[in-house]
Amino acid sequence: MQLREIMRTRLVTIGPKEAAGEAWIRMRRHRIRHLAVIDAMRLVGVVSERDLGGRAGADVRKNRSVQDLMTPHVVSAEPGTTLDQAADVMRKQLIGCLPVLEGDQLVGIVTATDVFEALGSSAIDTMSRAERQLLRAPSSSKRLGGQPVLNRRSRTSGKAPQKGLNAGENKKREPFADRLPRALKREAGRTDAPHVPANIRVVGVELDEDQKQYIRQTLGMKLGKFASSIERVSVRLKDVNGPRGGVDQLCRIKVVLSGLPSIVFQSQAGSLRDAINGALTGAERAVRRRVQRRRVKATKRKSTSR
Question: Cα–Cα 20 to 30 A to 179, which of 93, 114, 185, 200?
Fold first, then answer.
Protein backbone atom coordinates (compact mmCIF):
# COMPACT_ATOMS: atom_id res chain seq x y z
CA MET A 1 0.00 0.00 0.00
CA GLN A 2 1.18 3.51 -0.83
CA LEU A 3 0.61 6.87 0.82
CA ARG A 4 -1.62 8.01 -2.04
CA GLU A 5 -4.19 5.49 -0.80
CA ILE A 6 -4.45 6.86 2.75
CA MET A 7 -3.27 10.48 2.60
CA ARG A 8 -5.65 13.30 3.38
CA THR A 9 -6.11 15.61 0.42
CA ARG A 10 -8.40 18.21 2.00
CA LEU A 11 -5.57 20.31 3.33
CA VAL A 12 -5.70 23.15 5.83
CA THR A 13 -2.70 25.45 5.52
CA ILE A 14 -1.39 28.69 6.99
CA GLY A 15 1.18 31.33 6.04
CA PRO A 16 4.47 31.75 7.93
CA LYS A 17 3.78 35.38 8.85
CA GLU A 18 0.35 34.73 10.32
CA ALA A 19 -0.09 34.84 14.08
CA ALA A 20 0.57 31.68 16.06
CA GLY A 21 -2.76 32.29 17.79
CA GLU A 22 -4.51 32.12 14.43
CA ALA A 23 -2.82 28.77 13.74
CA TRP A 24 -4.21 27.45 17.02
CA ILE A 25 -7.70 28.74 16.21
CA ARG A 26 -7.54 27.13 12.77
CA MET A 27 -6.52 23.79 14.27
CA ARG A 28 -9.39 23.88 16.74
CA ARG A 29 -11.88 24.90 14.07
CA HIS A 30 -10.91 22.06 11.73
CA ARG A 31 -10.20 19.55 14.51
CA ILE A 32 -6.67 18.77 13.35
CA ARG A 33 -3.25 18.92 15.01
CA HIS A 34 -0.86 19.71 12.14
CA LEU A 35 -0.84 22.63 9.71
CA ALA A 36 1.25 22.80 6.57
CA VAL A 37 2.92 26.22 6.30
CA ILE A 38 2.78 27.55 2.74
CA ASP A 39 4.61 30.59 1.32
CA ALA A 40 4.34 31.53 -2.34
CA MET A 41 2.73 28.15 -3.10
CA ARG A 42 5.68 26.28 -1.57
CA LEU A 43 5.82 24.19 1.57
CA VAL A 44 8.17 25.94 4.00
CA GLY A 45 7.32 24.23 7.27
CA VAL A 46 4.92 22.35 9.51
CA VAL A 47 3.46 23.57 12.78
CA SER A 48 1.82 21.21 15.27
CA GLU A 49 -0.27 21.47 18.43
CA ARG A 50 2.86 20.68 20.40
CA ASP A 51 4.79 23.49 18.69
CA LEU A 52 2.03 25.91 19.71
CA GLY A 53 2.12 24.82 23.33
CA GLY A 54 -1.13 22.87 23.38
CA ARG A 55 -4.18 23.91 25.36
CA ALA A 56 -2.13 25.61 28.06
CA GLY A 57 0.17 27.36 25.58
CA ALA A 58 -1.45 30.80 25.32
CA ASP A 59 1.77 32.41 26.57
CA VAL A 60 3.81 30.45 24.03
CA ARG A 61 1.65 31.75 21.19
CA LYS A 62 1.35 35.33 22.45
CA ASN A 63 2.86 37.87 20.05
CA ARG A 64 4.51 35.07 18.05
CA SER A 65 4.19 34.29 14.36
CA VAL A 66 3.88 30.85 12.81
CA GLN A 67 7.44 30.99 11.47
CA ASP A 68 8.71 31.54 15.02
CA LEU A 69 7.32 28.18 16.17
CA MET A 70 7.11 26.00 13.08
CA THR A 71 9.50 23.23 12.09
CA PRO A 72 11.21 24.67 8.99
CA HIS A 73 13.17 21.66 7.76
CA VAL A 74 10.31 19.43 6.73
CA VAL A 75 10.66 15.72 6.16
CA SER A 76 8.30 14.87 3.32
CA ALA A 77 7.34 11.92 1.13
CA GLU A 78 5.96 11.19 -2.31
CA PRO A 79 2.53 9.70 -3.10
CA GLY A 80 4.23 6.48 -4.19
CA THR A 81 6.07 6.03 -0.89
CA THR A 82 5.08 2.73 0.72
CA LEU A 83 3.66 2.52 4.22
CA ASP A 84 6.70 0.58 5.42
CA GLN A 85 8.99 3.31 4.12
CA ALA A 86 6.88 6.03 5.71
CA ALA A 87 6.76 4.19 9.03
CA ASP A 88 10.52 3.76 8.99
CA VAL A 89 11.04 7.49 8.41
CA MET A 90 8.62 8.40 11.20
CA ARG A 91 10.32 6.03 13.61
CA LYS A 92 13.80 7.35 12.88
CA GLN A 93 12.85 11.02 12.79
CA LEU A 94 10.26 10.80 15.62
CA ILE A 95 7.79 12.93 13.67
CA GLY A 96 4.02 12.89 13.87
CA CYS A 97 3.15 13.67 10.25
CA LEU A 98 4.50 13.51 6.70
CA PRO A 99 3.52 16.09 4.07
CA VAL A 100 3.13 14.38 0.70
CA LEU A 101 4.67 16.25 -2.23
CA GLU A 102 4.35 15.69 -5.96
CA GLY A 103 7.29 17.64 -7.28
CA ASP A 104 7.11 20.91 -5.34
CA GLN A 105 3.34 20.75 -4.93
CA LEU A 106 1.76 19.71 -1.64
CA VAL A 107 -0.91 17.12 -2.49
CA GLY A 108 -1.62 15.48 0.85
CA ILE A 109 -0.60 14.73 4.41
CA VAL A 110 -0.49 11.60 6.56
CA THR A 111 -0.08 11.27 10.30
CA ALA A 112 1.68 8.60 12.31
CA THR A 113 -1.73 7.30 13.36
CA ASP A 114 -2.80 6.94 9.71
CA VAL A 115 0.34 5.03 8.75
CA PHE A 116 0.61 2.67 11.71
CA GLU A 117 -3.10 1.89 11.70
CA ALA A 118 -2.91 0.96 8.02
CA LEU A 119 0.09 -1.26 8.73
CA GLY A 120 -1.72 -3.00 11.58
CA SER A 121 -1.17 -3.65 15.25
CA SER A 122 2.11 -5.52 14.76
CA ALA A 123 3.74 -2.26 13.74
CA ILE A 124 2.49 -0.60 16.92
CA ASP A 125 3.88 -3.38 19.10
CA THR A 126 7.40 -2.87 17.73
CA MET A 127 7.43 0.87 18.41
CA SER A 128 9.55 2.45 21.13
CA ARG A 129 8.07 4.45 23.97
CA ALA A 130 8.94 7.73 22.24
CA GLU A 131 7.30 6.57 19.02
CA ARG A 132 4.15 5.54 20.85
CA GLN A 133 3.94 9.05 22.26
CA LEU A 134 3.37 10.30 18.72
CA LEU A 135 0.19 8.24 18.52
CA ARG A 136 -0.99 9.14 22.01
CA ALA A 137 -0.50 12.89 21.49
CA PRO A 138 -3.84 14.75 21.72
CA SER A 139 -5.57 14.90 18.40
CA SER A 140 -8.78 16.57 17.36
CA SER A 141 -10.89 15.76 14.36
CA LYS A 142 -14.61 16.22 14.11
CA ARG A 143 -14.53 13.52 11.50
CA LEU A 144 -11.77 11.65 13.28
CA GLY A 145 -9.32 12.88 10.68
CA GLY A 146 -11.11 10.96 7.97
CA GLN A 147 -9.65 7.71 9.30
CA PRO A 148 -11.45 5.10 11.39
CA VAL A 149 -8.73 5.23 14.03
CA LEU A 150 -8.96 6.92 17.39
CA ASN A 151 -6.37 5.52 19.68
CA ARG A 152 -4.37 2.42 18.87
CA ARG A 153 -3.65 1.61 22.52
CA SER A 154 -7.36 1.52 23.31
CA ARG A 155 -7.94 -0.78 20.37
CA THR A 156 -5.30 -3.29 21.38
CA SER A 157 -5.39 -2.75 25.16
CA GLY A 158 -1.64 -2.22 24.96
CA LYS A 159 -1.02 -5.91 24.29
CA ALA A 160 0.58 -7.68 21.37
CA PRO A 161 -1.87 -9.54 19.17
CA GLN A 162 -2.20 -13.17 20.11
CA LYS A 163 -1.38 -15.81 17.54
CA GLY A 164 -3.26 -18.99 17.01
CA LEU A 165 -6.57 -17.86 18.49
CA ASN A 166 -9.25 -20.47 18.08
CA ALA A 167 -12.50 -19.75 16.28
CA GLY A 168 -14.38 -19.09 19.52
CA GLU A 169 -11.83 -16.54 20.68
CA ASN A 170 -11.90 -14.81 17.30
CA LYS A 171 -15.67 -14.53 17.49
CA LYS A 172 -15.32 -12.75 20.81
CA ARG A 173 -13.29 -10.07 19.06
CA GLU A 174 -15.49 -9.52 15.98
CA PRO A 175 -17.34 -6.22 15.50
CA PHE A 176 -20.75 -5.72 17.04
CA ALA A 177 -23.57 -5.72 14.50
CA ASP A 178 -25.46 -2.83 12.94
CA ARG A 179 -28.81 -4.53 12.32
CA LEU A 180 -29.73 -8.17 12.71
CA PRO A 181 -32.49 -10.28 11.16
CA ARG A 182 -35.04 -11.35 13.74
CA ALA A 183 -33.88 -14.98 13.45
CA LEU A 184 -30.39 -13.95 14.55
CA LYS A 185 -31.42 -11.94 17.59
CA ARG A 186 -29.32 -12.70 20.61
CA GLU A 187 -30.14 -15.42 23.12
CA ALA A 188 -29.09 -14.74 26.69
CA GLY A 189 -26.11 -16.87 27.65
CA ARG A 190 -25.35 -18.09 24.11
CA THR A 191 -24.41 -15.01 22.12
CA ASP A 192 -21.26 -14.21 20.14
CA ALA A 193 -20.01 -10.68 19.58
CA PRO A 194 -21.30 -10.51 15.94
CA HIS A 195 -24.84 -11.05 17.28
CA VAL A 196 -24.83 -8.06 19.61
CA PRO A 197 -26.47 -5.06 17.91
CA ALA A 198 -24.76 -1.69 18.38
CA ASN A 199 -26.85 1.34 17.44
CA ILE A 200 -24.91 4.57 16.74
CA ARG A 201 -26.62 7.97 16.60
CA VAL A 202 -25.04 11.37 16.08
CA VAL A 203 -26.20 14.93 16.83
CA GLY A 204 -24.23 17.78 15.29
CA VAL A 205 -21.32 15.49 14.42
CA GLU A 206 -20.23 14.09 11.05
CA LEU A 207 -19.45 10.39 11.08
CA ASP A 208 -19.03 8.18 8.01
CA GLU A 209 -19.56 4.44 7.75
CA ASP A 210 -15.86 3.61 8.17
CA GLN A 211 -15.79 5.48 11.46
CA LYS A 212 -18.97 3.80 12.64
CA GLN A 213 -17.45 0.45 11.75
CA TYR A 214 -14.38 1.34 13.80
CA ILE A 215 -16.59 1.96 16.83
CA ARG A 216 -18.34 -1.40 16.34
CA GLN A 217 -14.96 -3.09 15.88
CA THR A 218 -13.66 -1.56 19.11
CA LEU A 219 -16.83 -2.51 20.95
CA GLY A 220 -16.25 -6.07 19.81
CA MET A 221 -12.63 -5.98 20.96
CA LYS A 222 -13.48 -4.52 24.37
CA LEU A 223 -16.89 -6.02 25.14
CA GLY A 224 -16.98 -9.14 22.94
CA LYS A 225 -15.77 -11.34 25.80
CA PHE A 226 -18.92 -10.32 27.71
CA ALA A 227 -21.24 -10.83 24.71
CA SER A 228 -23.19 -13.64 26.39
CA SER A 229 -24.29 -11.11 29.04
CA ILE A 230 -25.08 -8.23 26.66
CA GLU A 231 -28.41 -7.70 24.90
CA ARG A 232 -27.59 -4.54 22.97
CA VAL A 233 -25.42 -1.43 22.96
CA SER A 234 -26.23 2.13 21.98
CA VAL A 235 -23.69 4.86 21.27
CA ARG A 236 -24.67 8.56 21.18
CA LEU A 237 -22.28 11.17 19.82
CA LYS A 238 -23.05 14.85 20.27
CA ASP A 239 -21.43 18.24 19.70
CA VAL A 240 -22.67 20.00 22.84
CA ASN A 241 -21.65 23.58 22.05
CA GLY A 242 -21.78 23.56 18.27
CA PRO A 243 -19.58 26.20 16.57
CA ARG A 244 -18.71 27.79 19.92
CA GLY A 245 -16.23 24.97 20.48
CA GLY A 246 -14.56 24.12 23.77
CA VAL A 247 -14.67 20.80 25.58
CA ASP A 248 -17.89 19.97 23.77
CA GLN A 249 -17.57 16.52 22.21
CA LEU A 250 -19.75 14.03 24.08
CA CYS A 251 -19.91 10.26 23.74
CA ARG A 252 -22.50 8.30 25.74
CA ILE A 253 -22.52 4.50 25.70
CA LYS A 254 -25.35 2.41 27.13
CA VAL A 255 -24.91 -1.34 27.53
CA VAL A 256 -28.09 -3.32 28.22
CA LEU A 257 -27.18 -6.45 30.20
CA SER A 258 -29.18 -9.65 30.61
CA GLY A 259 -30.58 -9.93 34.12
CA LEU A 260 -28.49 -7.00 35.37
CA PRO A 261 -28.94 -3.22 35.52
CA SER A 262 -27.82 -1.44 32.37
CA ILE A 263 -24.46 0.31 32.21
CA VAL A 264 -24.35 3.95 31.11
CA PHE A 265 -21.01 5.70 30.74
CA GLN A 266 -20.28 9.01 29.06
CA SER A 267 -17.16 10.99 28.34
CA GLN A 268 -16.79 14.60 27.26
CA ALA A 269 -13.60 15.98 25.73
CA GLY A 270 -12.26 18.61 23.39
CA SER A 271 -11.99 16.14 20.52
CA LEU A 272 -14.42 13.50 19.37
CA ARG A 273 -11.78 10.78 19.34
CA ASP A 274 -10.85 11.46 22.97
CA ALA A 275 -14.52 11.42 24.00
CA ILE A 276 -15.12 8.10 22.21
CA ASN A 277 -11.99 6.50 23.62
CA GLY A 278 -12.88 7.64 27.13
CA ALA A 279 -16.42 6.28 26.87
CA LEU A 280 -15.28 2.95 25.39
CA THR A 281 -12.70 2.43 28.12
CA GLY A 282 -15.11 3.43 30.88
CA ALA A 283 -17.89 1.22 29.56
CA GLU A 284 -15.55 -1.79 29.35
CA ARG A 285 -14.47 -1.34 32.99
CA ALA A 286 -18.03 -0.91 34.21
CA VAL A 287 -19.30 -3.99 32.34
CA ARG A 288 -16.38 -6.08 33.58
CA ARG A 289 -17.04 -5.11 37.19
CA ARG A 290 -20.76 -5.83 36.97
CA VAL A 291 -20.39 -9.17 35.18
CA GLN A 292 -17.59 -10.33 37.46
CA ARG A 293 -19.64 -9.37 40.52
CA ARG A 294 -22.43 -11.63 39.27
CA ARG A 295 -19.98 -14.47 38.69
CA VAL A 296 -18.55 -14.08 42.20
CA LYS A 297 -22.03 -14.19 43.70
CA ALA A 298 -22.88 -17.30 41.66
CA THR A 299 -19.69 -19.00 42.84
CA LYS A 300 -20.45 -18.17 46.46
CA ARG A 301 -23.97 -19.58 46.14
CA LYS A 302 -22.61 -22.84 44.73
CA SER A 303 -20.02 -23.17 47.50
CA THR A 304 -22.59 -22.55 50.28
CA SER A 305 -25.10 -25.01 48.79
CA ARG A 306 -22.63 -27.91 48.97
Answer: 114
